[in-house]
Amino acid sequence: MVTAIVFIKADVARIPEVAEQAAAIEGVSEVYSVTGGLDLIALVRVARHDDLATVIPEHVNRVPGVLSTETHIAFRAYSSHDLEAAFSLGEEDGV
């Protein structure tokens, strides 16, 4: 699994729409609205590095309202605690 963190600058009037459309793209696991110099951060998780070339420039960058992106590829995860907790939401203990 390859993980990329994509910083997105968007048209301020379209941030919610951009976030929803980006989140609907296959390979985009999460989109967060954030404070600071960025508008959104998307987490992209794909099977192969080559898949990033499809998901980011061909889909994320083409969402209407996206002004620019900056992509950071993750090398190694040092803690999976938060990720495991996120995927277990709604599951009952012992299931």
Automatic annotation (TrEMBL):
It comes from Kribbella jiaozuonensis. InterPro entries: Dimeric_a/b-barrel (IPR011008), Tscrpt_reg_AsnC/Lrp_C (IPR019887). Gene3D superfamilies: 3.30.70.920. Residues 7-76 form the Transcription regulator AsnC/Lrp ligand binding domain. This is Lrp/AsnC family transcriptional regulator. Signal peptide: none annotated. Pfam families: AsnC_trans_reg (PF01037).
